[in-house]
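REQUEST FORM: STRUCTURE PREDICTION
Request ID: SP-0412
Submitted by: Lab K.M.
Chain count: 1
Length (residues): 342
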Amino acid sequence: MSLALPKRLKQSLQVALSLALAGWIFWLLYKDLDFSLITAALSEMHRGWFIASILLSIYGFWLRAYRWKLLLNTDTDTEAISTLNSFWALMIGYVTNLLLPRAGEVARCAAVNRLSGKPISQSLGTVVVERSLDLLFLLATIGIAFLVEAKLFLRLFGELVDLGALAQSFQNNLPFLLGALAITGIAIRILVKKYAASGWVNKFQQFARQVLTGIQSIGKLDKPFAFWASSVLIWLSYYLTMYWVALAIPSTANLSASAILLVMVMGSIGMVAPVQGGIGTFHALVAYILNVLGLELTEGKVFAVIIHGSQTLLVALVGLLAFGASLKILNAQATKKRGESF
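STATUS: Completed
RESULT:
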């Protein structure tokens, strides 16, 4: 008797679990915080720096839409998409992700399909490439942060991990570890051969093809310099957005540029955690690193909730605007087609 859950029910349970986990982490972190501290920080905020951070965030979204457009338009068999329509599709994906984890990627590709006719499968391949690039840039950012704050990194790592005990344990168990690694490799090879025709292997092969298609699209770019320059500027906009919010709040206004880089790294790690929208994990990691940098834990929590909350609200507002703009474009396209048919 099969106990497999229906796909829709399984997805609903995954969403509910992600939301519950995010809510629990957030509650655990903020249950003892006096929320008047947040309102006080907002009232004392430097409005100029904060508004500048919001405008820069929108520019960062636009840069991402521009970079995505460059990838999408390597397919010359379909209608080219404009940066504006790519922007609307991107924001539709972002606002969808606020409601349904991982559904945003499909939603924005579906929006591109409606707006320009580009196949969803091809668009998904470019999204995979974007995610891979983001991971590379995150690792590069972590590397830069390590170089500028090496002593702090080593101190934090030393507090979390006993390096001497770890090295001794690795040395004592080296033969066992090598044997386990060899057995694992053989087992994986046997399983892949045995289940080569099964669903999960086919899904992996399809995913690999999408990645390959996306990577090939980079090689077909008409403007490779613009692509890589926009990639750098996207991450620079992330950094400056966080820096300007820090300048806007009195408790964080005196943090150094390298300290803000560390905060950005911790926040980025929190955002990629498997919880809804980075809720809880972003706040916990940002508050933790700010506490290490000398702020009170409550001040770190206040900063985290202000920057995360403002960005979430911005995505929601621009995402809803994107839905409206897309509907207007589609209606105009339908009207034009009806006029041409007469």
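NOTES: The chain is about 80% helix and 0% strand.
Reviewed by: T.R.
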